[in-house]
Write a structure and sequence with these properties.
The protein has about 260 residues and is of the alpha/beta class. It has one domain: Ribonuclease Inhibitor (Leucine-rich repeat, LRR (right-handed beta-alpha superhelix)). It has 6 helices and 9 strands, in the order H-E-H-H-E-E-E-E-E-E-E-H-E-H-H. The longest helix has 25 residues. The chain is elongated. The termini are far apart.
């Protein structure tokens, strides 16, 4: 029995080492779905800085990680980091030193807090924090001015920070299935916003500022499964203009025969 376990471990380490060797050539390091609880010694060794420095895509999704070694900070050129579907309760501080990351996926973990240091990741274009246990988002997120897509559905958020209005390039917000009562009027400052998804929250009529309709280019505001009634939505100033934009969007995306 012991020999079989030893053989399986050796085989696993060999497979991981092979993935590292390939990463040195391709720039893609994937350990997704490997059932790992911690990163093996080969990761700490890194097979040399030439491998770590060459990695552009790092996929650690679908494992059982609760933490990562400080070595993660050595991936200085990585642009995509996937930590989805693990067991992180917090993200390693070294992660926030990776200033070239454009896509960060930490969905499906146990995160209860997002630190202010997220603001250091100024190259972020897509941030996915869905299906965690977040109760709030830090005001410092407003410094992520390159962010295009923010996904925070399936958390425990009671509000969105006013600093969201500083996300001048934000195009899509998904905050479905939280406990949000008000869409912050500051979101109207997001000049590129097209989609606002806040279904399954606690939003009533007073929670939808008219600026959402009158001062944005938004073509979809999803308010399904909220206390607010359709008739109340239709009475909000600017709804008719928004509805015209929404219909145009639907027409443009409809399949042609």
């Amino acid at each position: 029995m012991g020999n079989k376990q030893s053989s399986a471990t050796s085989s696993s380490n060999a497979s991981i080492r092979q993935r590292f060797e390939r990463a040195g050539k391709t720039g893609i390091l994937s350990l997704a779905g490997a059932g790992l609880k911690e990163l093996p010694g080969v990761f700490e060794a890194g097979l040399g800085d030439n491998v770590i420095g060459n990695v552009r895509s790092l996929d650690l999704s679908g494992n059982k990680f609760t933490s990562l070694p400080s070595t993660i900070g050595g991936f200085s050129n990585v642009k995509m980091v996937n930590l989805a579907n693990n067991a992180f309760t917090s993200l390693p501080s070294e992660l926030f030193t990776l200033s070239k990351v454009e896509t960060l996926n930490a969905a499906g973990n146990l995160l209860g807090l997002l630190p202010d240091a997220i603001s250091n990741m100024t190259s972020l274009r897509t941030l996915n924090l869905s299906k965690n246990s977040l109760r709030s988002l830090p005001a410092s997120m407003g410094k992520l001015t390159n962010l295009r897509v923010l996904v925070v559905n399936g958390n425990r958020l009671t509000a969105l920070p006013p600093s969201i209005g500083n996300l001048s390039n934000l195009e899509e917000l998904n905050a479905d299935d939280n406990q949000i009562e008000v869409i912050p009027s500051e979101i109207a400052k997001c000049g590129e916003i097209k989609t606002i998804r806040v279904a399954g929250n606690r939003i009533e009529k007073e929670g939808v500022p008219s600026e959402v309709f009158t001062e944005t280019k938004v073509t979809l505001v999803d308010l399904e499964r909220n206390p607010i009634k359709d008739s109340d939505i239709q009475q909000i100033q600017g709804f008719d203009a928004y509805n015209a934009r929404r219909k145009t969007r639907v027409d443009q995306t409809a399949p042609t025969i």
